[in-house]
Design brief:
Blueprint lengths: L6 E11 L10 E4 L8 H6 L5 H8 L2 H29 L35 E2 L23 H5 L3 H8 L12 E4 L10 E10 L5 H14 L7 E9 H37 L1
């Protein structure tokens, strides 16, 4: 097989509340609302970024099973993106599961000892990339699905949108921190594809946040290859917004107290002058 330029897939993992939905929509979504909540006193003190809260969830079979299912499904989606990249770069190369070199494909999540569990469950996630039951297209993968993609031939709903968005580009980068698998910190990715992942619960502060954090750690354990690498970015939509709002409220509260204090001192001075 001829040498293939190193491909990079950026996995954007977002935690958020059920409403409003994530925008732009994700390719893969995981519903955490059926996962049992941690005790109220834990939720009152910590959000999903807390080690104590995540440890509580990791003792639950439903949470762990969904985490393993998510890792396996995302691995399959990443491999599909890489196979399509090979088709684009080398149209004469067959990239079915029977012919792709193992040096170029990430191992299935369930083949790793770190991801195996007896209590795996299948509820709570939606498959991707595809057209959902509600008819909503997984738009973040449209640039990947050109007219040669087998999904386009078998799912006519993809064809008109595929041709329209074939040359579209989306800036996948953000200001948040990243977890990188398979490349050194000084190496810039050569070709990027984006896989947008949604993790949502009722309020977007506890279960979904912990799930996104753990999923990011799990995906970061995936080995890079000579032709393929994965960049993982984890962002918390509603936790970060609430933190900023709380900071503004605290600053406003202190300022108001100072103004009221000055008014009281002025009133006392006027009384003394009478």
């Amino acid at each position: 097989m001829a040498d293939v330029e190193t491909q990079t897939v950026i996995c954007e993992i977002w935690s958020h509340s059920h409403a409003p939905p994530l925008h732009p929509p994700a390719s893969v979504a995981f519903d955490l609302r059926k996962v049992p909540n941690p005790p109220k006193h834990v939720r009152d003190q910590y959000d999903g970024r807390s080690k104590r809260l995540s440890e509580h969830l990791l003792h639950g079979a439903v949470f762990v099973g969904l985490l393993e299912r998510a890792a396996k499904e995302i691995t399959q989606a990443i491999n599909a993106i890489f196979s399509e990249s090979l088709n684009r770069d080398a149209p004469g190369i067959t990239t079915s599961s029977d012919h792709v070199s193992h040096d170029n494909v990430l191992p299935d999540a369930d083949s790793s000892g770190d991801l195996t569990a007896a209590d795996s469950v299948s509820s709570g996630c939606t498959n991707g990339p595809t057209v959902s039951d509600s008819g909503i297209l997984d738009r973040s993968l449209v640039p990947v699905m050109n007219s040669r993609h087998p999904r386009v031939r078998h799912e006519p709903a993809l064809q008109p949108l595929c041709d329209e968005n074939l040359d579209s580009k989306e800036d996948p980068l953000s200001d948040s921190g990243e977890v990188v698998s398979g490349r050194s910190s000084g190496e810039e990715p050569k070709s990027d594809q984006v896989l947008r992942i949604s993790c949502f619960c009722e309020r977007g502060r506890h279960r979904s946040v912990a799930f996104a954090e753990e999923l990011g750690r799990t995906l970061n354990k995936m080995p890079g290859t000579r032709s393929f690498q994965v960049v993982v970015r984890v962002q918390h939509r509603d936790v970060e917004v609430k933190s900023r709002d709380s900071g503004r409220m605290r600053r406003g509260g202190r300022g108001k107290s100072r103004v009221l204090g000055a008014a009281i001192v002025a009133d006392q001075a006027e009384l003394q002058d009478l």
